[in-house]
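Sample intake sheet
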Amino acid sequence: WFEGISGKDIVLQLKDLDTTVAKHTIRFNSPGGLVDEGLAMMNVLRMHKASMKLLNPTFQLETVCDGYCMSAATCPFMSGDIRTIALGGVFMIHNAWSYAGGDAKTLHKVADDLDKLSSIAADIYAAMCTPDGDKRNAAFFKKLMDEETYFVGDEALSAGLATQVDKNAEAVLIASLSPET
């Protein structure tokens, strides 16, 4: 919400990454934000991943939920080939929100637009999750979004939103002792 990084910031940061490595890791701790930025970040990361795979077909993009990955932040998280929920990580999906004013016609349009944005998110989750029959289709995710669903590690893994859970408490401890914090 008008703080943090934007899709443009990510483009600038990706330019500085080593293109000879087999994996890039993007770490998330975000309560979310604006839908347009979340979608832009997702597509920037997807384009980055595609261009890296041209250089190295075995390249993988890893996205890691270190703390919160909620709302609009979940879209760029889904761009990872490897999607990790760290020990204590929380992932949350819900329907699109907005603030609006105006007459009934305007408010109906806002509601219709929000339904479209929520459908886009459900389609993204369904398209990027590990296939599991019909269980993980857009309707499956839309129901979870309707309920504003919070997931911890194994729950995100079971829903297909994560591909692995990192329960290594030692890694979390070392990260918390980092000189950058």
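Comment: The mean pLDDT is 88. The beta strands are 23-30, 60-70, 82-86, 90-93, 149-151, 164-166.
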